[in-house]
Amino acid sequence: MFTIELTLKHTAMPLSVQKKEQSEAEAVYNSVADALRSGNGQLLELACDQQPHKRISILGSEVAAVQIFEKSGTATASGRPPGFFALSSDQ
Predict the structure, then answer these.
(1) Fewer CB under 10 Å: which end of the chain, C or N?
(2) Do the domain assignments include residue 33?
(3) Domain tally for the chain?
C-alpha cells in the first residue's frame, strides 16, 4: 500500500490517501506536484483505495508539500510514520 500525504498551507494536519499500485500512487503524486509547480487554483480530486468512500477535493494552490511512501507491515524505528515534521513532548 502506498500513501500520498499532502500538507496544506496554514494547516498542521496532513491529508492522505492510499493506493494499492505504485503506478497509481506515482500518478497521483505527479498530478499534485504539477499543481504545486503551476501555482494555479485548479481543483484536485483524490480517492483512496483503502477506504473506497474516502474522497478529498482541494485547491492546488493550497498545497504546501506532497510526499509518497510505501506503508510496510513494520513500524519505523521511532514508532512514528514518516512525515514532514513531528510534534513531541520530549523536552
Answers:
(1) C
(2) yes
(3) 1
